[in-house]
């Protein structure tokens, strides 16, 4: 006979065992978190998401900006065998995360529209046969024949979908390419879980995300979006410069001032410098090298205030930002939430201030009118685009075209903002897709073996020192395309940049290397409908 006290003892033991097992199960993930990211414990909800994914469950995670979304797929991917496929529409974020992971000696690779077909093929083969843990791709890559032909050969452990609200037509940033993500399930094991991540989704969008990603069962994990440590303020001011000067003297610590235009970006930064503030400016028109230098100086505390357009923010993990000030009203509530949420990620008291002057109200009304162009305007823009790309109306489906927005609006004398918003509408309706503006550095890949390269160097002494310079300056060029900087090579070799370029071109023509000169891709279009 089992007595009552025996049952209680058994129950207590069972609970203890279960708790112990749960702690043991999460321990490998904590070890990875500490080893690579330096944190001893997870933030709210991170542990629950990781546990859900580890159990093989399709999971939709709603986390606020700064909540640490990337950790929820990067940590479990490091614990489990195989490679994690990360789908994100932001090329700049993709490249930033890959760079950060590789800096941690976590082998990662990215595939995006700025790459040549040869680079994409090599990258996929490396992801299949190399010891990689993360493969980042843009959503439009999913539907290509090359990707679909090789994805089944990937040893996938997890599929992470960032900005998951883009899959819902009820979302504020719907993208047709996201609708094709569910097709992955036809090519991969049904044991591979999907992890969908977003910082903002209404109940309607939440249900739509799970439906369109074909979740095996509904599974939503969410945390509070309230940031109680941030004081949100709206200030009506006539003189924003005077307010900024006064605020800088009252608030300690570093911060961000967001503006709408590149011109104002520089002007406000110079204004702060004149007030004795260590300030700098940042926008997408600067070179990659200069932007990296400015961001690093701000992250290190050498620059106190960075004045920036919305190009600044992706991949920022600085926790001690004490204030975010919006000089101009952002495009949307979602953008404001994202940008202001970069303050106070360490949980300490911080400020988010929105400045409004009487002139801002009329500008906002005008902006709303431009943001929703009439149907005729949208049709005219589409026709002008086809003329610009030299594609007959109704043709060009699935073709990809480089596109220079500045040249387009200048040639056809079009208003920039209305034209851009017309293109956004055409994208949402599925007529086309266009990538964000990106800078692609030059890339080099050795296509001969090390033994054959040595023979070439012996037989061609004039190339020997330059090849040695390449091999000393960069690693991994025998297995993949590696970004190179002709200016840096020029400085190291005491040769002109033109000489370096000629060496690279000549080596490419001799089939020793593949050399892809760098270029700035303003946009790329893929037409979807006639």
Structure description:
With 530 residues, the chain is of the alpha/beta class. It has four domains: 4-222, Rossmann fold (3-Layer(aba) Sandwich), CATH 3.40.50; 230-363, Rossmann fold; 372-425, no CATH class; 439-521. Helix content is 44%, strand content 18%. It has 19 helices and 21 strands. Strands 3-4-2-5-6-1-7 form a seven-stranded parallel sheet, with helices on both faces. A six-stranded parallel sheet has the order 8-13-12-9-11-10. Strands 14-21-15 form a three-stranded antiparallel sheet. α16 (450-459) runs antiparallel to α17. The longest helix is centred in the first third of the chain and has 34 residues, at 4-37. The chain is globular and about 75 Å long. 33% of the residues are buried.
């Amino acid at each position: 006979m089992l007595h009552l006290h025996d049952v209680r003892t058994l129950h207590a033991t069972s609970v203890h065992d279960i708790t112990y097992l749960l702690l043991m199960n999460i321990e490998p993930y904590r070890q990875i978190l500490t080893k690579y990211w330096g944190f001893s414990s997870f933030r709210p909800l991170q542990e629950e998401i990781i546990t859900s994914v580890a159990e093989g469950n399709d999971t939709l995670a709603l986390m606020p900006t700064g909540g640490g979304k990337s950790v929820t797929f990067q940590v479990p991917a490091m614990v489990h065998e195989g490679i994690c496929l990360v789908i994100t529409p932001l090329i700049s974020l993709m490249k930033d995360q890959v760079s950060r992971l590789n800096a941690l000696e976590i082998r990662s690779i990215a595939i995006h529209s700025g790459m040549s077909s040869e680079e994409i093929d090599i990258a996929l083969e490396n992801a299949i046969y190399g010891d990689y843990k993360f493969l980042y791709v843009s959503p439009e890559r999913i539907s290509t024949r090359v990707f679909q032909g090789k994805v089944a050969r990937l040893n996938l452990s997890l599929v992470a979908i960032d900005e998951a609200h883009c899959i819902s037509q009820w979302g504020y940033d719907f993208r047709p390419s996201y609708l094709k993500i569910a097709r992955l399930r036809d090519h991969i094991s049904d044991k591979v879980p999907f992890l969908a991540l977003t910082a903002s989704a209404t109940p309607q969008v939440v249900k739509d995300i799970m439906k369109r990603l074909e979740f095996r069962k509904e599974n939503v994990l969410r945390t509070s979006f309230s940031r109680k440590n941030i004081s949100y303020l709206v200030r009506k001011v006539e003189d924003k410069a005077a307010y900024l000067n006064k605020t800088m003297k009252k608030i300690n610590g570093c911060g961000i001032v967001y503006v709408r235009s590149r011109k104002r970006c520089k002007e406000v930064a110079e204004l702060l410098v004149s007030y004795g503030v260590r300030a700098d400016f940042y926008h997408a028109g600067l070179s990659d090298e200069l932007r990296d230098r400015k961001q690093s100086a701000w992250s290190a505390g050498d620059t106190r205030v960075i004045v920036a357009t919305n190009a600044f923010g992706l991949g920022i993990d600085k926790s001690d930002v004490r204030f975010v000030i919006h000089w101009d009203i952002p495009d949307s509530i979602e953008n404001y939430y994202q940008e202001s949420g970069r303050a106070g990620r360490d949980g300490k008291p911080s400020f988010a201030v929105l400045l409004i002057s009487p002139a801002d109200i009329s500008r906002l009304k005008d902006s709303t009118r431009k943001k929703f162009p009439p149907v005729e305007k949208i049709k005219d823009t589409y026709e002008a685009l086809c003329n610009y790309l030299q594609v007959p109306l109704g043709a060009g489906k699935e073709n990809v075209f480089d596109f220079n927005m500045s040249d387009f609006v200048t040639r056809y004398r079009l208003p920039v903002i209305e034209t851009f918003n017309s293109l956004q509408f055409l994208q949402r309706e599925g007529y086309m897709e266009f990538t964000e503006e990106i800078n692609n550095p030059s890339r080099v890949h050795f296509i001969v073996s090390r033994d054959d390269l040595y023979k070439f160097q012996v037989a061609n002494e004039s190339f020997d020192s330059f090849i040695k310079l390449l091999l000393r300056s960069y690693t991994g060029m025998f297995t993949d395309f590696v970004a190179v900087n002709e200016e840096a090579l020029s400085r190291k070799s005491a040769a002109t940049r033109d000489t370096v370029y000629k060496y690279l071109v000549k080596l490419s023509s001799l089939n020793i290397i593949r050399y892809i000169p760098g270029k700035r891709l303003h946009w790329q279009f893929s037409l979807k409908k006639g």
